Amino acid sequence: MPSDELNVFGDPLEPCSTTPETGFLRDGNCRHLDRDPGRHELCAVMTQEFLEYSREQGNDLVTPRPEFDFPGLHPGDRWCVCLPRWIEAREAGAAPPVVLEATTEGVLDELSVDELQAYAYEA
């Protein structure tokens, strides 16, 4: 199985969200793809704090953009977050919780499983 199909535990990658559709391919999965320079590989559960942080950094995830079939995100939504943005948010104290089963093992080149588990989402 290609590494983009495995999660950080080495198990089959679970979908992050289909409502709203997320991922670089908008197929619900946070995959590692060479053609995705933003690295939308980390499945996170949106928090108000992260949404505000992201908007302050110039990436408004709240405002709907119908021309891109983007509904706008709300706290509680799951979304494939760009790995560098999540790391920035962590350093700023605004990182959202991570759905480890839906986060590609590709992120392990930047973060350890232990670092990710400290932010694990618990339903």
From TrEMBL:
What name does UniProt use for this protein?
DUF2237 domain-containing protein
So which domain of life are we looking at? Answer: Archaea
Q: List the InterPro entries.
A: DUF2237
Q: Which species?
A: Halohasta litchfieldiae
